[in-house]
Amino acid sequence: EEALLARATTGEDETACLAALDAVADAKSIVVVARSATHAAVGRAALRRLTEPKGIASVARGSIHAAIRAAALESLQSPEDIGSVAQRSPHEDTALAALERLSDPALLRQVAEHAKCPAAAKRARVILYALEVEPRAAAAPKPTDRKRQAQLVAWAESLGTSRECDELQTALTTARDAWTDLIPHVDDDLSERMEAALRAARERLAVNLAEREQRLARERERAAFTARFLAPRVVLCERIESLNGEDAPRLLDEACWEWNRLDPGAALPPAEAEEVAALGRRFDEARKVCDCRHAKWEEDLAEERRRTEDAAAREAREAEERDNLHRLTLICERAERLLRSGKPSLGKADEVLHALRASLESPPPVPTRKDRRAIVERMKELHGALAPKVKELRDNDRWQRWAGAAVQEELCAEAESLKEVADLDEATRRLRDLRERWKQAGPAPQDQAQALWRRFKAAGEELRTRLAAHRAEQEAAFAGHFQAKEDLCGRAEALSASTDWMKTAEALKALQAEWKTVGPAGPGREKQIWERFRAACDAFFTARKGDLSRRQDEWSKNLAAKEALCGQVEALAASTDWEPAAAAVKKLQAEWKSLGPVRRNKSEQVWKRFRAAGDRFFERYKRRHEIDAELRLLEREKVCVEVETLAAAEPAALLEALRAARGRFQKAGQVPRDKLAPLEERLQTAFGRLVESHPEVFKGTEFDGDGNLRRMEELVARLEKLGGNGPAAAEEALSPAARLATMWREAMATNTIGGRVAHETKARAVAEDLKRAREAWQRIGYVAPDARRSLSERFERACRRLEQRSRA
Fold it and tell me: How many CB atoms lie within 10 A of CB 690?
């Protein structure tokens, strides 16, 4: 049942949705389908299956399709069901249509009070007014604006031909609201025409909504058909048409596999089936073209590969020939350099001669025949010139070896005599000299060279054996020194990370003195162990120096930060913006606590400065209300002084100057009444002197004393009348507009027309009247001090009486 309900409400295929609806048997599920079905045809089919008025009313209230809501409402007959639709439907068109079918005042009153749709509630109140109030008002007919009514009726009648849903809905609401504003002062004939025009417009709106739903359904069906049958096929066709390269066969097979898995659409209408078939023909043609394109690509690739291989082989052969020619040319150039040198070495000359002979016996390939002839002729010429020189060099080499043998025998005898030398260092030095002389001596004949070298080497080995025993003794002493210095390094490294600067510095200095008493650690290790010891000492002293520098920097930064905080607190000490300034000072005090230390000689000084500034502010903060009042009084005193000095001003500028001064005086803020009264008296006295001096300038303005006096007397008399005669007199003293506003507030407070007025509402009205009276009193301009003083006393007494009456 749940699966059928989901298919019927949210399925894409309308036919499948209708089939699922036929299988649904539960009445509540059918109501859900009628309210929520995506396809309007499915919703109408579900509505036709409903017989219970309760279910039909539910569809009329909440269906997502306007046409279905209208059809369900049309089938309802019971006023209670129709009233529930008007009251509970959130859709304006449905609620208003249901409301037009109601005539029972009780149902209309329920809709007016509890309707979800604001337009329906407003319309219900209008109909109730027409049913209950208009009959009573018929005895005293009032003039109507027939021209305006005729224009609205003509506009409403023109809405019956509109084809736009949204514009028609807006226009219908506007026309109905405009006509409602004219009720009850409308003519009967135009009222009937207006009702008929509105019904026709609503019917046209329902038709337009149904047509739009049908059009949207067709568009959804077309989109679903395209997404299911056309779009996948178009994508595959375009993919095959763009295939090329090595992966084309694999991608073509994948595309064919995807094509075979698509829905064939056997039950489609002829036109849609033809579209699918056309895409099938396009796919077959694209597949054939892809096969041909890939075969041509393979042929082109094979031909390109053959051309590449042939070119590579040709280039390799040509490169080899060029390399051969270059190698032969280098041999010739080397032979030519040897011939030019005059005294070439036997080894190099014999090597070059052997290379020339081998190249002439089997010449390698070269780029051209011309190159071959030229290089062969050149090698033959060089071989003929170099062969005699090689023979001459061999003869000279034999004579030099005979002479070298004699020198080597002398060196062997001297080396053998070193075993008699007691000073091993001297013997070692002399052996090194003999080795250098051996290297400089010429070679011996080959039959004697090996024996002479073994004799010289044996003499050196004997000396090295004696030297090794001596160095073993030295190494034992070096090892002891090295171990002692390693111990010193370990102790120094253990102290290098210490932060107890004084004690650690003394300990390291003692270690340095002990280091000097230890002997050398031997060559190759002395420098290494010394660098280790020095690194440990340097690490400590560098850290000590850095720590001192860091602390000095930290002290300087903390001092600068605290001095900046002092400046900020001192700047706030004279502020009158009390709460923000107090919060800022507290924040600065918290920030002071988060800062680190400073130098000892600066700490107390900067703290006293900071605390003194904070104390100054908080002493003023305790007296903030007195200071504010003093500032307000001072501002008013400045205004009084300025007005008193205006006697010598030009008459043309007096009016604006007095207006500005009066505005500043009134905006200076509240102060105690006993301190404000003398300043007001002083200001009014100054105003009086200026007004008496230049009466023509202030005639008809707020500084006209006679006119202001009349306004004060009228305001005092009205308040005294209100306070003496009770609520009825208060209402009579108000203007018609004020009385109407008061009645409306009272009616809204009791939520009914003509009901009992709540006492709290009247008290609020009296308080509001008092507030407006005090504001009007403050706006009255200059009045002579004596008259103003007596009227002020009367005004205050009347205000107190009204306040007491409102509290009672």
Answer: 23
Which contacts (CB < 8 Å, 24+ apart) does range 26-29 have? 26/1, 27/52, 27/55, 28/55, 29/1, 29/4, 29/5
662 contact partners, CB below 8 Å, separation of at least 6: 683, 702, 781
Q: How far apart are CA 303 and CA 315, in angstroms?
A: 18
**Exposed (0-12), middle (13-18) or buried (19+): which is 516, by Cβ within 10 Å?**
exposed
Ramachandran bin of 669, using left for φ above 0, alpha for ψ from -120 to 50, beta for the remaining angles: left
Decide: residue 493, CB within 10 A, 0-12 exposed, 13-18 middle, 19+ buried. Answer: middle
Helix and strand tally (H, E) in the chain?
33, 0
pLDDT of res. 319: 92
Question: What is the dihedral angle through the alpha carbons of 630, 636, 640, 641, rounded to the nearest 10 degrees?
Answer: 50
Q: How far apart are the first and last CA of the chain?
A: 68
**Exposure string for 254-284, b = 16+ CB within 10 A, e = fewer:** ebeeebeebeebeebeeeeeebbeebeebbe
Cβ-Cβ contacts under 8 Å for 620 (sequence gap 6 or more): 573, 574, 627
Phi, psi of 520 (to 5 degrees): -70, 155
AA letter at 303: E
Rounded to the nearest 5 degrees, what angle is found at the Cα of 639, between the Cα atoms of 679 and 668? 75
Q: What is the pLDDT of residue 123?
A: 81
d(CA 557, CA 599): 11
For the beta carbon of residue 679, count every other beta carbon within 10 angstroms: 19
* Cis peptide bond upstream of 672, omega within 30: no
Query: Taking a C-beta distance cutoff of 8 angstroms, is the pair 695, 655 a contact?
Result: no
List, in order, residues 6 or more apart from 211 with CB less than 8 Å away: none
According to the model, what pLDDT value does residue 792 have?
80
Q: How many CA atoms lie within 13 A of 789 on its CB side?
A: 9
CA–centroid distance for 428 within its chain: 81
Q: Average pLDDT in the 777-796 region?
A: 74
In whole angstroms, what is the distance from residue 650 CA to residue 139 CA?
Answer: 65
Task: Assign 497 to helix, strand or coil.
Answer: coil
pLDDT tens track for 589-626: 888 888 887 777 788 888 888 888 888 877 777 777 77
> What tokens were used for 4?
């059928």
Residues in the chain: 808
Residue-wise pLDDT tens digits, 341-387: 877 777 788 888 888 888 888 888 988 989 889 988 988 888 888 88
Q: How far apart are CA 408 and CA 455, in angstroms?
A: 10
Report the alpha-carbon distance of residue 523 to residue 166 in Å, rounded.
103
pLDDT, residue 752, reads 43
Question: What single letter denotes the amino acid at residue 105?
Answer: P
**Using 50, 70 and 90 to split pLDDT, how confident is the model at 285?**
very high
Q: Which pLDDT score is estimated for 361?
A: 86
Question: For the residues 741-766, what does the mean pLDDT come to?
Answer: 56
Question: Which whole-number Å values give the CA distances from 427 to 421, 452, 462, in the listed order?
Answer: 6, 21, 11
Q: At what angle do helices 92-100 and 79-88 cross, to 10 degrees?
A: 150
Q: What is the pLDDT of residues 428-442, one digit of tens each?
A: 777 777 777 777 666
Helix, strand, coil percent values for the chain (each to nearest 5): 85, 0, 15
- Phi/psi at 39 (5° precision): -90, 130
How many other C-beta atoms can be found within 10 angstroms of the C-beta atom of residue 720? Answer: 16
Exposed, middle or buried, 570 (CB in 10 Å: 0-12/13-18/19+)?
middle
Residue where the block lists tokens 């190698």: 327
